[in-house]
Fold each of these.
Amino acid sequence: MGTAVVFGALFFWIERTSKQPMLNLALFSNRRFRFASISTLLSFVALYAIVFLAPFYLLFVLHFSILKVGLALIASPLATMFVAPVSGAMSDRFGTRVFAVVGMCIAAAGLYLMSGLNASDNAWDVVWRLVVIGIGLGMFQSPNNSEIMGSVPPWHLGIASGIIAAMRNVGMVLGIAIAGAVLYNLAPFAATAEPGSFSPSEMQEFLRGLHWAFISGAALAATAALTSLLAIDRKKQGAKAEGPSSSN
């Protein structure tokens, strides 16, 4: 951790002073780019809370086979696959912000609904919640990526694309770390448990850990909706607002 802090600081110092930086930190002075990038990071943190935790629920609580776990988890990416192209096309016509904000609100609602799962639920109870999350992420991702790429000049498109990929990868890692930390803090025995080995009291403790881990993911998704709402160029908006009055 100490090494990461030292070399992270050194990296940012070099990038700020270099004439040809690998990562142009000046891009983050752009409000649209900064907040849309943060939204990407938070969305993948929230997504990977599901990717990491849902299999544990399906295995330990519903006693699914590995094949059934995989089939159930397909629901979310399938929903995203169908919604994302439509959302991207509509955002090109009507603007990106409303789709990004609404999409992350839907994803947050889906994560909150996941927190209500219990031992008496079935496969359908999981699948429809995953579909809700997939719809929300599908609405969000294409417009948000468009917002990031549209906020930089053409000669910085490569760097912007790289930052999207970096935010995505860091979000994946943080999502697993945060979800795992919440779950194992509340149900530490789950780290070494085998499917079907829980006592009734351990099952309740495990479900409580899942509950708060999903709540944490929902909070992060709601925060991503807020940062998407803030991803607007105030100068541009100010110019639009002043335009009619100056012409009058």
Amino acid sequence: MIEETPALVFGPAIARPPLALGEKIRGAPASFVADAMGGSGALDWRIRPIVGASVFGVALTCDCGANDNLALIAALAQSEPGDVLVAATGGFCRAAVAGDLLVGVARNRGVAGLVTDGLVRDLADLEALALPIYALGVTPNSPGKRGPGTVGLPVVCGGVAIASGDIIVGDRDGVVAVPRERLAETLANLGGVKAAEASLLEKVRAGLKELPVAAAHRPKEGP
């Protein structure tokens, strides 16, 4: 006899990063964070801010699949204050994965935001709730609630592998996911990125007319 596939599969308890360590990255531009990871971690550019201009928190992942949000509802029930719900849909764009009711409950629980490679709905009410949301766009269509799906297990969202416990940083440039195991490394590099950017910006404002890297790529003179 073939057993029925369970509607949802749950991962182990989330290993959240130390609060003091995670907080050190708060407020850093997403572009600086991506640079600090060697140009990695940025989600697909099409995942843009739908509500709000920035998001920061600890990832709580779910894989909803196409045209379904049962996994997101289950993830929401496990969420803690400061979590960012990361809902993978495989880029499904014919129905929303979340609307005002789900997002309203998320705000009530202290969730820090929602990031999805799918769509959302009820834009006017989402804007009133003011919970940061990053998504591919908006549609009036609603999803099913049947599963299958996963909660708390690694997902791929916007072309990037994300695990629960990773740090999510987003601003108007887009979203970056920092793997939990790379957080210390990223923070160590971030100081150098900030210093280099500040130094070059000061020179630009003072009238710099050529970026330093150009000097190494000038055409050779003479035969």
Amino acid sequence: MEDDALQSYLESIVSPERLKRFDEVLKNRTNYITVVMEDVYHMHNVSAVIRSCEVFGIQNVHIVENEFAKHLDKKIALGAQKWVDFTTHETTMNCIKKLRSEDYSIIATTPHNNANTSRDYKITGKTALLFGTEKEGLSKLVMDEADGFLKIPMVGFTESLNVSVAAAIILQDLTHKLRSSTLNWKLSPEEKKLKKLEWTKKSIKNIDKIITRFLSDN
């Protein structure tokens, strides 16, 4: 009840138009597809992938830091980092184990191998899309552990795309399929409620002081 009271109070501070926008966005948010970036060391690419995830309604992003320390390029993400959740992993295997414990299929994106195209790929369950480094691609570990492979159909001389471009194309294809399916891909009512509270907090200046004052008065 205290959480409900706090949420009602905080929502009274935010404009009705912004709250309505939260509801509209949350209708299309999903955890059914998640994205994993394995050692993508160019920060503008990390940020651009995150921006694409936000645009196409992906709520959770995983970042593996086997070799490279990460920091988010906020200028390129253009605020997307406020609305997307991040989980960082020290090793690829830790990430894969975590995803498998949550019933995700591990799908490696690659221009090679006998892979499905993003247009032909059928979503049958929770899917983790893994993207690798700009030069080497995904690690051998991912390729060995993958439950499936995915590629973008290309007809030119170039064999690969920039990782941020590839992610945007694949996410557009797969999220369109997901929303056209009968799969239970949407956030639960409780997940939407918690996320709306989190976004409301992020929209209010001096939020810590406001919450402290509210709790002391109640």
Amino acid sequence: MSVSALGPDLLPAYYTNYGPGCNIAAPGGEIYQKTPDGKPTVKSAILSTVVKEINGSDYGYMQGTSQACPHVSGIAALGLSYAKKLGKKFTVQEFKNMIITAANDIDSEIQAVGNKSSYSNQGGDVTKYYHMMGTGAIDAWKFMMKVEGIPSIQVENGKSDWVDLSDYFGTAYSQLTYLKVEVLGNGKEDLGISEEPYIKHNRLFIHPTKIGACKIRVTAVGGGNELGGDNSIGGMEVSQDISIISRPTLSSNGAWL
């Protein structure tokens, strides 16, 4: 699996490999990334283990695809551990497929920057990297949800989102009677959700105010307006867990995913 490298602005690092052979991108650091006042800052690189006898410390800031690849290796190891915990098994190809498709889009950002001269590290032009960095930037949460078998929805933080449920309840989604939406675990706090999510016109309303991820559970009645029981004829309860990923449209703080 070939890994290309991103800088902290989620754009291709100036040194990265790229081309049809690249599969996925990950943080590789960029030592020469500049601060708002135009000065290079070493902290835009990756804090990594180094050889103490050479560097005088166990840790140091580094850059390279040698930093990007361990990000992917670490996420793969995390997924293997989680699959074992869940008692799940995957073929090598199935596991690779989940890694490659657990990615966030970077091509739209490459298009947005284009050949603007303000992007100095690439000589003002990043268009050569369009569709050349792999499937996108690897996302650990998306990958873990794939291992778990839960679909993920990406929404924009700070905005009210209406999510079409047809992809998650099949073609009969409009025939269901939705009972409730539950935010699981610490999801409300993690995503800054103060207004309870709800469903209207077969769409899920959610308004996250923080960047992060959580899981929700949507419960509905299939085959009627009410649940059936011992003394009444009615529908069956169905539920679907869905992963909600809240991200900014554009990264404004220069932070890693």
